[in-house]
Every structure is written in C-alpha cells, then in structure tokens.
Automatic annotation (TrEMBL):
<feature type="binding site">
    <location>
        <begin position="181"/>
        <end position="183"/>
    </location>
    <ligand>
        <name>substrate</name>
    </ligand>
</feature>
<dbReference type="GO" id="GO:0046872">
    <property type="term" value="F:metal ion binding"/>
</dbReference>
<dbReference type="GO" id="GO:0004750">
    <property type="term" value="F:D-ribulose-phosphate 3-epimerase activity"/>
</dbReference>
<feature type="binding site">
    <location>
        <position position="183"/>
    </location>
    <ligand>
        <name>substrate</name>
    </ligand>
</feature>
<comment type="similarity">
    <text>Belongs to the ribulose-phosphate 3-epimerase family.</text>
</comment>
<feature type="binding site">
    <location>
        <position position="35"/>
    </location>
    <ligand>
        <name>a divalent metal cation</name>
    </ligand>
</feature>
<dbReference type="InterPro" id="IPR000056">
    <property type="entry name" value="Ribul_P_3_epim-like"/>
</dbReference>
<protein>
    <recommendedName>
        <fullName>Ribulose-phosphate 3-epimerase</fullName>
        <ecNumber>5.1.3.1</ecNumber>
    </recommendedName>
</protein>
<feature type="active site" description="Proton donor">
    <location>
        <position position="181"/>
    </location>
</feature>
<keyword id="KW-0464">Manganese</keyword>
<keyword id="KW-0479">Metal-binding</keyword>
<feature type="binding site">
    <location>
        <position position="37"/>
    </location>
    <ligand>
        <name>a divalent metal cation</name>
    </ligand>
</feature>
<keyword id="KW-0170">Cobalt</keyword>
<dbReference type="InterPro" id="IPR013785">
    <property type="entry name" value="Aldolase_TIM"/>
</dbReference>
<feature type="binding site">
    <location>
        <position position="181"/>
    </location>
    <ligand>
        <name>a divalent metal cation</name>
    </ligand>
</feature>
<dbReference type="Pfam" id="PF00834">
    <property type="entry name" value="Ribul_P_3_epim"/>
</dbReference>
<comment type="function">
    <text>Catalyzes the reversible epimerization of D-ribulose 5-phosphate to D-xylulose 5-phosphate.</text>
</comment>
Length: 220
C-alpha cells in the first residue's frame, strides 16, 4: 500500500541562534514532521541533542517529532526521548549487533510506551536482515549517507534497498513508511520518490534560503 509523501526537515542544519523563528517557518510550511537527530559521540563521531532540547521543540511545534537515535544504547535512550515528546523513534540495527531478537524487543518496548517505532540501516548494512521484524515497523529508514553529519552527498546506490522494501511491503501486505535520510535536495528527492520512498528527511537543503519554499519544492 502506498503512503502519501511526508517531509521531515532535519533540525541538525538549523541556525540555532534563530531557533524559534525557524521552527515557526516549519510550522507554516507543508512539512508534517520534524526530524531530530540524536548523536552520542560514540555510535557516530558527532554529538548533538539531549531530551531537554526535544522538550523545547515540542513547546514550539505540534509537528510529529521524528527522532533518529544514532546512539550505542538505543534501549536506554528510547524511553527517555519518548518521555520528552518523541512520536516516532527509529534506531540503528547495528547498535544492537544486527540481532533481530534484540531489535524486535526494542520495537515492542517503544510501542508499549505509546510511540511509533522503526529501524534504520547504515549504507553498508544489508537491508534484508530486517525481514523478520518488518511487520512490527511503522517505518524503515534507509540512510543515504554515512550517519553523523549533515551536508553530505546522496548515495543513489541505496535505491535498491528502497525498492526491496516496497516489494516486501506489497508481498506481505504491510504498511510501514519508507524514509530516506541524507543528501536529499531539489534534484535527488526525485530519485528517492521514484524508487518508492514516501518520507523524506532533508536538512541542509531546507535550511539554506527560504524554508517554506524549500519544503514545497520536495512535494512537487
Ligand atoms: O541523520 C542525519 C545525519 O546522520 C541527518 O538527518 C541528515 O544528514 C540530514 O542532513 P542533510 O539533509 O544535510 O544530508
Ligand atoms: Fe537523521
């Protein structure tokens, strides 16, 4: 079943000296989600936001909080970010040693806490390993850059993973969303959408120039 397209701007690329104004622009744009990249300086070589910052964003916006955990211990941090206001929590299977029993129990735990749940795969990870947990995913996130930093180039060679997810969804009559993250701009989004992605994260593209027009450009 196809899903209608959702844009999830990544606040990793926001100008934090203008945070309330830029969140107001997102609220006034056709973006329905806000992508919040949590990095622990260990799973990835960069350090970003804690739960109190998410609480601040929640006070400024009713957008769906799409929290991407790039942390070594997602089972510890998922409940903390749900408590802080996360609506969707995605975590990396690599952080759980690609062990689908551990992945399944964290998906169940996130659902028990009342949030939507999904898994993320890095570029070098074979997406097919997640087949056993697909029926428990509200979303699967395909990284189209190495996680850790904004502003990198889109990896078109990840599109076979997106197409595999489309086929699995159809074959198993599932309804998870397919999100892509990294290097999405006014050109690359078309490749992702044509491959079957329905949820687009975009950071540097959205926050360079006119935020509302940039979000609109990804919905054309
Ligand atoms: O998860 C991420 C990086 O690890 C970010 O969500 C992503 O990189 C967005 O930035 P850009 O659109 O500039 O590539
Ligand atoms: Fe992200």
């Amino acid at each position: 079943m196809e899903n209608s397209r959702i844009i999830s701007p990544s606040v990793l690329s926001m100008d934090y000296s203008k945070m309330p104004e830029q969140v107001a622009q997102l609220n006034a744009s056709p973006a329905k989600w806000l992508h919040f990249d949590v990095m622990d300086g260990h799973f990835v070589p960069n350090l970003t936001f804690g739960p109190d910052i998410l609480k601040g964003f929640c006070k400024l916006s009713d957008l769906v909080m799409d929290v991407h955990l790039m942390v070594s211990d997602p089972a510890k941090y998922a409940p903390i970010f749900i408590d802080a206001g996360a609506n969707m929590v995605t975590f990396h299977v690599e952080a759980l040693d690609n062990d689908m029993e551990k992945v399944q129990s964290l998906l169940d735990e996130i659902h028990k806490l009342g949030a939507m749940a999904g898994v993320v795969v890095k570029p070098k990870t074979d997406v097919k390993i997640i087949q056993p947990v697909l029926s428990s995913c509200d979303m699967v996130l395909i990284m189209t850059v190495e996680p850790g930093f904004g502003g990198q180039s889109f990896m078109e060679d990840m599109m076979p993973k997106v197409k595999w997810l489309v086929n699995q969804r159809e074959a198993k009559q599932l309804s998870y969303r397919i999100e892509v993250d990294g290097g999405i701009n006014g050109t690359t989004y078309k490749t992702a959408v044509d491959s079957g992605a329905d949820t687009l994260v975009a950071g540097s593209f959205v926050f360079k120039g006119n935020i509302i027009e940039n979000v609109k450009a990804l919905l054309k």
